[in-house]
């Protein structure tokens, strides 16, 4: 008997030790290639695998497009209706494509010269934009000018280096990216100019810089600089704004500007913005209500040879205010909604379809995405999957005020991806609008949406109190009256007990 | 020992000492003086308060509204979570006693433990209703919660400091000095424990590698 019990105790001890030393199964790290092609972040910042949001429809290389001369390090894409313009920077030309469907693009024209100037060819054109009147604006970077051409490619205006006292005269003007507003004002990013976007009026005059990135420095840096010698100070980093990498003008006339020159520490401390939405005053009005910052990957550990924060090289904005940022570092696309929630993230570096080597520009048509790869010289066309279409459908219906239908769409999204936080919050918001507060609260609680939960709970509490007001009053009265009554009876009893008439 | 549990006096004594915790809460000076000098406190009551604190701390995880406390259940280890109370408590009791006993402190190790546990009473008393309250407020009204929650901790800290002064018969200045010194004593203990465990693991590893080497050569 004793032997058996000893044997059991040893066996138990062995089991405990064995359980204790078994390595805990490795958790997927978001920064490495362990995740699925498409993923999302949950409330805790854990990477949640997701069904594909976008799928590659076709990859258009030079030969697919039937170009005689192959594209060479193209840098810019611009979509204008169903026309797609590619800045074939290395070949000093612009290719005009027409979308027939998502799997077929026709080359319409190859633009390599214009009329009306002694130097009528382009030199490394890096971006193109088209105004509502149909005038072409081309950032002719190698020639240091922005050209305004009419639809028949006759020169209308030239925008040269801005005349400004604060600008270093020795710097060569290299307009890199441009956008045009409805009044044909030009906003431009030029290499080496970090004062913000260069703004030209419609008549070609330079009217100032707008929307410089915020300059941040902490107090310790400032102190160090105070005590440093001249030579040491020269060695230190300057407190200057960073240059933008790309800009996009959305359908409302707001400029989305992205920059990749951000550090992990600044992003985490909320001291730098990878994306800004700039209004006419040059202020950042991007809504950042998401659980995580709008800077792409939040897990920035090295994985697969890539390290550091996402490097946003371009951005495009859909008509439902979802904007998609293109990460050059890990070759990913990040979609955020108007509140700053991550809608989708997908992509990677590599040679397969849907993977990139150096993605530089992104554009959209409807809900399709076009990504231009600088090294592959190819345009990848992405079309939304059933999952993606449902999400867009749910968001659009909510914006139109059709809350019941939006809720139904989100339900179907949830069936396709049970780990999708936005689906739960979407269903909750639809219930909230339908005044079904209890159900809304349940959905918000699952995904830790404090603000919406509080909104629903406030209404629920109000309704509950109104329904149960009689019970509440009775209970409150009972709490006060019963002890009072007991005290009264006790004192009465005491009076009777001690009354003189019984003692006599 | 067990037979005393059936006696009525044992239980009334227990209740009396447990109720005395509330007296200590409102009379931090008199109460803690009587706690040891008049033998008004019992270990049973002290243990009860400690266990109540632990239970409330655990219950908070589950029953506090997610507006104020979000729990990442995947990573939660209940034993480590309880140790976050018990371990500092043990360090405090040992550290405080070890120091004060060298400098005319009148409290014994057990009395330090008892008084510290009695000093924890605001935590369960305030946190329990707060936990229930958290479920009927919105995030805008959440300030009440955070202020009261912080208050329970500050209250407990004040009680513990006051209790130490009374059981050791220290003046106010000396008491504060030894409170700070006890905190340092806790750090020293952590340091020693860290060294101790790393030494042990080094020693064990030595023998393991010795046996491994031996097995290779066989």
Key features of this structure:
heterodimer; A: 504 residues; alpha+beta; Neuraminidase; 3 domains; six-stranded antiparallel sheet; four-stranded antiparallel sheet; 29% helix; elongated; B: 218 residues; mainly alpha; globular
If helices are DSSP runs of H or I spanning 4 or more residues, what is the number of helices of chain B?
8
Class based on secondary structure composition and strand pairing of chain A: alpha+beta
Rg result of chain A: 32 Å
| Coarse shape of chain A | elongated
- Oligomeric state of shown chains: heterodimer
Please give a structural write-up.
The complex is a heterodimer of chains A (504) and B (218). Chain A is of the alpha+beta class. Chain A has three domains: 47-384, TolB, C-terminal domain (Neuraminidase); 403-467, no CATH class; 471-503. In chain A, 29% of the residues lie in helices and 27% in strands. Chain A has helices at residues 2-21, 62-65, 219-227, 230-235, 264-268, 386-400, 403-416, 421-433, 437-446, 450-467, 469-498, 500-503, and strands at residues 38-41, 47-50, 54-60, 76-80, 83-88, 93-101, 104-111, 125-130, 136-140, 145-149, 155-159, 175-180, 186-190, 197-200, 206-210, 246-249, 255-258, 275-278, 312-317, 323-327, 332-336, 342-347, 359-365, 368-373, 378-384. In chain A, strand 1 (38-41) and strand 2 form a beta hairpin. Chain B is globular. The mean pLDDT of chain B is 92. The chains are: A alpha+beta (504), B mainly alpha (218). At the A-B interface, helix 10 of A face loops of B.
């Amino acid at each position: 008997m004793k032997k058996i019990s000893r044997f059991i105790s040893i066996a138990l001890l062995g089991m405990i030790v064995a359980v204790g030393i078994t390595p805990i199964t490795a958790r997927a790290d978001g920064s490495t290639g362990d995740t699925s092609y498409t993923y999302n972040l949950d409330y805790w910042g854990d990477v949640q695998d997701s069904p594909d949001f976008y799928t590659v429809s076709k990859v258009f290389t030079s030969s697919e497009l039937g170009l005689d001369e192959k594209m060479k390090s193209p840098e810019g894409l611009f979509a204008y209706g169903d026309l797609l313009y590619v800045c074939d920077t290395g070949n000093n030309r612009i290719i005009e494509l027409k979308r027939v469907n998502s799997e077929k693009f026709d080359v319409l024209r190859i633009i390599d010269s214009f009329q009306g100037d002694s130097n009528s060819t382009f030199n490394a054109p890096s971006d193109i934009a088209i105004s509502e009147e149909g005038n072409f604006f081309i950032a002719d970077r190698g020639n240091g000018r922005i050209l305004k051409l009419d639809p028949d490619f006759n020169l209308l205006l030239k925008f040269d280096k801005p005349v400004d006292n604060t600008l270093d005269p020795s710097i060569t003007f290299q307009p890199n990216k441009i956008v045009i507003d409805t009044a044909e004002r030009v906003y431009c990013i030029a290499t080496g100019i970090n004062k913000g976007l260069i703004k030209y009026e419609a008549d070609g005059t330079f009217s100032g810089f707008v929307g410089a990135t915020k300059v941040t420095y902490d107090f310790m840096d400032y102190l160090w600089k105070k005590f440093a010698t001249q030579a040491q100070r020269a060695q230190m980093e300057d407190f200057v704004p960073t240059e933008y990498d790309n800009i996009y003008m959305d359908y409302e006339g707001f400029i989305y500007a992205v920059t990749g020159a951000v550090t992990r520490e600044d992003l985490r401390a909320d001291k730098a913005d990878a994306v800004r939405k700039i209004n006419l005053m040059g202020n950042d009005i991007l809504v950042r209500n998401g659980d995580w910052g709008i800077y792409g990957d939040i897990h920035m550990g090295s994985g697969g040879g890539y390290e550091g924060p996402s490097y946003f090289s371009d951005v495009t904005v859909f008509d439902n205010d979802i904007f998609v940022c293109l990460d050059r570092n890990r070759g990913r696309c990040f979609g955020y909604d108007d509140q700053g929630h991550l809608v989708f993230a997908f992509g990677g570096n590599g040679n397969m379809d849907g993977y990139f080597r150096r993605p530089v520009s992104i554009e959209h048509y409807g809900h399709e995405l076009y990504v231009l790869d600088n090294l592959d010289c190819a345009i990848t066309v992405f079309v939304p999957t059933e999952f993606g279409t449902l999400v867009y459908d749910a968001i659009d219906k909510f914006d139109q005020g059709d809350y019941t239908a939006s809720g139904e769409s989100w339900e179907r999204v949830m069936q396709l991806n049970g780990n999708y936080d936005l689906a739960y919050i979407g269903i909750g918001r639809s219930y909230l609008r339908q005044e079904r507060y209890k159900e809304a609260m349940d959905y918000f609680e699952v995904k830790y949406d404090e603000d919406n939960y509080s909104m629903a709970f406030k209404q629920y509490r109000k309704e509950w109190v109104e329904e149960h007001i009689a019970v509440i009053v009775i209970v409150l009265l009972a709490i006060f009256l019963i002890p009072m009554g007991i005290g009264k009876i006790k004192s009465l009893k005491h009076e009777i007990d001690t009354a003189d008439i019984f003692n006599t | 020992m067990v037979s005393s549990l059936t006696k009525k006096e044992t239980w009334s004594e227990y209740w009396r000492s447990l109720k005395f915790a509330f007296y200590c809460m409102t009379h931090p000076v008199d109460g803690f003086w009587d706690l040891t000098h008049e033998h008004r406190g019992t270990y049973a009551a002290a243990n009860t308060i400690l266990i109540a604190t632990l239970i409330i701390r655990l219950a908070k995880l589950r029953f506090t509204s997610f507006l104020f406390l979000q729990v990442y259940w995947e990573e939660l280890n209940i034993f480590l979570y309880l140790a976050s109370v018990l371990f500092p408590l043990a360090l405090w009791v040992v550290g405080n006693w070890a120091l004060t006993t060298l400098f005319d402190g009148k409290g014994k190790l057990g009395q330090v433990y008892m008084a510290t546990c009695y000093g924890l009473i605001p935590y369960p008393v305030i946190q329990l209703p707060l936990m229930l309250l958290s479920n009927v407020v919105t995030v805008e009204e959440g300030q009440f919660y955070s202020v009261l929650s912080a208050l329970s901790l500050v209250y407990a800290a004040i009680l513990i400091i006051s209790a130490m002064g009374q059981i050791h018969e220290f003046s106010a200045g000396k008491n504060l000095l030894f409170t700070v010194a006890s905190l340092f004593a806790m750090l020293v203990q952590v340091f020693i424990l860290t060294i101790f465990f790393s030494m042990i693991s080094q020693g064990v590893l030595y023998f393991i590698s010795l046996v491994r080497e031996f097995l290779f050569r066989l």
